[in-house]
Write a structure and sequence with these properties.
Layout (H helix, E strand, L loop, with lengths): L5 H6 L1 H12 L3 H9 L1 H4 L3 H12 L3 H4 L25 H19 L4 H12 L14 H20 L5 H23 L23
């Protein structure tokens, strides 16, 4: 039986990522499948991003989070939820960020820098990072990631891949998005602890 240092899972990001990926079975073959999908998915990223933002604009509970100034955005901000239109410069700014995120998922190396980036995706939606005015409730983050997962699955099913490649790709993205979900949820714990690189001798090697 493998011993897991449970308190360390809350303080050491690399250790946590390695444990979760190993438990789920996210491995090098899965990352290869994700990378292999890039040529098919890249032309469809813009339409996927549009679908996500169309969904976000459906509810005031999600759309309101785009009214405050977004971290890194320097243009004019909307005056209210009602004044925030899809063509607003701040929405275009956020769309560009989501597009880069999706591209990074299918092209990036899954190294320590990527682990930190995936973790930042969770942290940046809380006051712990970026704009102090941004504090997205966990229920909205879970709903959004579920929508993204389903939209991504539908996109993969539409590619006409062989049954074997389709299955491999769907399973790989499913594992990856569950890892992302964990790295979002960790920042919503009642008493979150600061993560660090975790380069100690006992570190579990990242398996991907």
């Amino acid at each position: 039986m493998r011993h897991i240092d449970e308190p360390r899972l809350e303080s050491d990001l690399a250790y946590r990522f390695a444990y979760v990926t190993e438990f789920m079975g996210l491995n090098g073959a899965d990352i290869e499948a994700i990378h292999a999908s890039a040529a098919h998915l890249a032309p469809l990223v813009a339409s996927l991003v549009d679908a996500v933002y169309d969904k976000l604009a459906t509810y005031d509970a999600t759309w309101r989070h785009f009214v405050p100034r977004q971290s890194g955005y320097e243009g004019d901000v909307p005056t209210s939820v009602e004044a925030l239109t899809m063509d607003h410069e701040q929405i275009q700014f956020r769309k560009a960020h989501l597009q880069r995120y999706l591209v990074k998922l299918v092209t990036g190396a899954y190294d320590d820098a990527m682990v930190g980036y995936l973790d930042l995706v969770g942290k940046m939606h809380t006051p712990g990072q970026g704009s102090q005015a941004i504090n997205v409730p966990l229920v909205q983050m879970n709903a959004l990631l579920g929508f993204v997962a389903d939209a991504l699955n539908a996109t993969i099913f539409s590619l006409g891949l062989s049954r074997e490649d389709e299955t491999r790709t769907i399973r790989a993205f499913s594992k990856l998005l569950w890892v992302q979900n964990d790295l979002i949820n960790r920042h919503y714990q009642a008493a979150p602890k600061a993560a660090h690189a975790g380069n100690g001798a006992e570190r579990i090697a990242v398996s991907v």
